[in-house]
From TrEMBL:
Protein name: NADH-quinone oxidoreductase subunit I
Cofactor: how bound: Binds 2 [4Fe-4S] clusters per subunit.
UniProt: [4Fe-4S] cluster 2 binding residues: C84, C120, C123, C126
Assembly and binders: NDH-1 is composed of 14 different subunits. Subunits NuoA, H, J, K, L, M, N constitute the membrane sector of the complex.
Gene (UniProt): nuoI
Length: 182
């Protein structure tokens, strides 16, 4: 029967020679390939001690931003939730009370803010939609977890440290964003 392609190979059914029965040439050839890899640059790295730099356009876990006085920028307007194609964002708005001006930048703030990381596809639409520069995607990824609850990130998990009271932690968290933020 005529083959449809030219990829078929004739099987060699000749009896093996004495040398071939010892498998020595094949073993030596195989060891040669193994040893040649010893002198090549390793494609693996010792994670987590060593980490590869992320691409400049990498989009990871979100961070909720504060202003230079440490006040929360988010006004719970809901635009990020509307823009989110995965419906991963939920929030509850609250009114700022007298005396809370040092906590919240605007008269309305997010009393609750949650992102379901199991739904998030890290598209960055929430960051694009936010009119208050309140949410940014960082260059860190979601750590592994044993339960689904651990992937529901609450406001406390997402808020960037306060630049006034925790300047070192704030600078470190800001560094994970990988771009200038307001
Ligand atoms: S990155 Fe995309 S999917 Fe994730 S919360 Fe933002 S808008 Fe939703
Ligand atoms: S993060 Fe931005 S878009 Fe989302 S609710 Fe807060 S202010 Fe609005």
């Amino acid at each position: 029967m005529q083959a449809l392609t030219k990829r078929s190979k004739q099987v060699d059914r000749r009896p093996m020679t004495a040398m071939e029965k010892m498998y020595l040439p094949s073993i030596i050839k195989g060891m040669g390939i193994t040893f040649s890899h010893l002198f090549k640059k390793k494609p693996t790295i010792n994670y987590p001690e060593q980490q590869r730099p992320f691409s400049a356009v990498f989009r990871g876990v979100q961070i909720l931003n504060r202003d230079e006085e440490g006040r929360e920028r988010c006004t719970a307007c809901g635009l990020c939730a509307v823009a989110c194609p995965a419906e991963a964002i939920t929030m509850e708005a609250a009114e700022r009370q007298p005396g809370e001006e040092n906590l919240y930048r605007e008269e309305k703030y997010a009393a609750k803010y949650e992102i379901n990381m199991l739904r998030c596809i890290f598209c960055g639409f929430c960051e694009e939609a936010c009119p208050k520069d309140a949410i940014y995607l960082t260059q860190t990824f979601t750590p592994a977890n044993y339960g689904r609850e651990g992937f529901i990130y609450k406001k406390e998990d997402l808020l960037i440290p306060n630049p006034v009271t925790q300047p070192e932690e704030y600078a470190k968290a800001k560094g994970t964003i990988g771009k200038d933020i307001k």
